[in-house]
Each structure stands twice: as structure tokens, then as C-alpha cells.
Write a structure and sequence with these properties.
Length: about 325
């Protein structure tokens, strides 16, 4: 577990998601209303608590726990964490509330994907009492202090229950997964889209990226992993790679094949593309970042194949 102090207000705790460094982070915003953005899954909660302790933050002082979306690597531990935060309210997208109150569908869906690995990765997933949840509508605001306001933007594309949060002080957007993934390789930064199942929509993702551009941001805060002030560059990279992901996947997708075989073929093609991109930018073949790439390209392939298979016959897969 490590702590990255971004500025005097915002810190990032490495949650050691999947036992990997710099995989998933939780942002701590020190304002009058102390706020946490993202918890990751339940096995990450000890790392979050340790980070908060190092920052001299008491759990009873936390006022808000904000979840950009409810995929388990961002929100699976929220119920467990909330049990120790007596004064906190969980802030989510309107479409997410019912799944936090009754996480049975989240659990069954994850078990179908992860099988025997589910418990090690995600257990336990604790229901959250409805009275401790607050939903935020599109463009709704939340004051954390007299000088800090968070504004919430509904940003589907990665998931229908996804919002992004604009911090008025830093003029930075907490983008969850809609702006993709930032890979940190020494001083280098790489950006690829995250097109995970089963609500990926490329048009909505393009629209969200355009929204980020129109906001003229000074920072992006990624769920995976860390922040950047190279906003224009990061968004243009994600845009470019999204188009290539769709083109490559279309070339390797065969409608007559079963889902699993299409995922295998598309995963291989996407990994080849992303890995070669890093190689061309002087990333060593044995660098640990490639382990993350393998995982992420498989998940992205699943989302794109799912998107293709849901489209009516004869409709473009672009």
C-alpha cells in the first residue's frame, strides 16, 4: 500500500486491487465534508483503512463515499467499509442504488465470470441500507465546503450507471473508467479505453470524452490509476485507441462463432496491438505492465464482443 499526495487537498491510496501495485486507487478529498471516491473490492478495504490511518483520518469523520459506478473493482467493498463509517453517506448514480441495496445480481454476475476465484477477489459484498444512499442526477452539485463544489455528470459508455465528478477547486474530473486506463511506466504514461461488459457503448463513450474536452479540464483523475495534467493528450490517446479497438475487433469478430471463441480471438488481437504500441515507445518486453495489459485486453474484448453480439443483424458494428 502506498499513498500519493497529489496536492494539499487530494491524496490517492493504492488499494492493491488483485494484489497489484497501481491497479486501482481511492481518492481522499480533505474538505469540511471529508470525501472518499472509490473503495475497490472488499479485499482492498484493509489497504484503504491503513492509508486513511497514515493520513490521520478517522473513519467517523468521513461524510461521503462516492462511487463512480458499481463494477466490483470500484464499489464492491463499499458495504463493508460503510459498516465502519457511521456518519458517511454513499453517493451513486440513480441506476446504481437498487444494486447496492440488493447486490444479488452483482454477485451472481461476478460468480458467472470469475467462478472459483470470486471469493478471493470480491468476498464479501455487503448490502447497503437504502437510507444511507444518496443519488445524484446529471449536472447536480454537492458542496464539500464554502470553497469546494463537486458537480456530477452522467457519463455512460463504460457502464450505464456511471457518473464523473468535477472538482471545482482543481478543475479536475474524476472519470472512473469512462476516460480509460492510465498505465504508469516510469515517467511514461499510456492511455487505453476500458470497454468492459456488459453495457459498453462506443458512441456514448465518444460523447463522454467530448464532454470532458468541453469542460476544459486541468486534471483527469483515473480509477486505474492516478491523475494527469496532460488532459488533451490523454483524451486524444483514448479516442484514437478506441477507434482502433473497434476496427481491430470488427476484423476478428465472427458472428457465427460462440462468445468465448470470439473473446479469445479479439483478446489476442487487442493485446498484440496494445503491447506493440508500448514496445514502440520503449517499454521492455518483460515489464510488469504487460500483465495488466493481458487482463485489461481480455475484459475489453469481452465488452466489445458483447456489444457486437447484441446489435441487430445487418447493423454496422462501428
Amino acid at each position: 500500500m502506498s499513498i500519493h499526495r497529489i496536492d494539499s487537498r487530494i491524496s490517492l491510496v493504492d488499494l492493491m486491487d488483485l494484489s497489484m501495485h497501481e491497479r486501482t486507487g481511492s481518492y481522499i478529498i480533505k474538505e469540511k465534508s471529508l470525501t472518499i471516491i472509490e473503495t475497490s473490492a472488499s479485499p482492498s478495504i484493509p489497504h484503504l483503512k491503513k492509508g486513511l490511518s497514515k493520513l490521520n483520518i478517522n473513519l467517523e469523520d468521513i461524510q461521503y463515499i462516492i462511487l463512480t459506478h458499481i463494477h466490483l473493482d470500484h464499489a464492491g467493498g463499499a458495504g463493508l467499509f460503510l459498516q465502519e463509517c457511521p456518519n458517511a453517506t454513499v453517493i451513486v448514480h440513480p441506476k446504481a442504488r437498487r444494486h447496492l441495496v440488493d447486490p444479488s445480481r452483482l454477485i451472481s454476475g461476478a460468480k458467472a465470470v470469475y467462478g472459483d476465484k470470486f471469493d478471493a477477489l470480491f468476498h464479501p459484498i455487503i448490502p447497503i441500507p437504502e437510507e444511507r444512499i444518496r443519488v445524484m442526477e446529471d449536472r447536480e452539485s454537492l458542496d464539500l465546503s464554502e470553497t469546494c463544489t463537486l458537480t456530477f455528470y452522467h457519463t455512460p459508455g463504460h457502464a450505464n450507471h456511471h457518473f464523473s465528478i468535477l472538482d471545482s477547486v482543481s478543475n479536475g474530473m474524476f472519470t472512473g473508467d469512462t476516460s480509460g486506463i492510465q498505465y504508469r511506466v516510469g515517467p511514461k504514461r499510456f492511455y487505453f479505453p476500458s470497454t468492459s461488459p456488459n453495457q459498453f457503448n462506443p458512441d456514448q463513450m465518444r460523447h463522454a470524452i467530448q464532454l470532458y474536452k468541453e469542460c476544459r479540464l486541468d486534471r483527469l483523475y483515473f480509477g486505474h490509476f492516478g491523475e494527469t495534467d496532460q488532459v488533451t493528450y490523454a483524451l486524444s490517446e483514448v479516442e484514437e485507441h478506441l477507434e482502433r479497438f473497434m476496427e481491430i475487433s470488427k476484423e476478428h469478430f465472427v458472428p457465427s462463432l460462440p462468445f468465448e471463441e470470439n473473446v479469445k480471438n479479439v483478446t489476442s488481437a487487442l493485446f498484440h496491438y496494445a503491447s506493440n504500441w508500448m514496445t514502440r515507445h520503449d517499454v521492455a518486453p518483460d515489464h510488469p505492465v504487460r500483465e495488466l495489459l493481458i487482463l485489461d485486453m481480455q475484459v475489453s474484448a469481452m465488452g466489445i464482443v458483447d456489444y457486437f453480439m447484441k446489435k441487430p443483424k445487418g447493423e454496422s458494428t462501428a
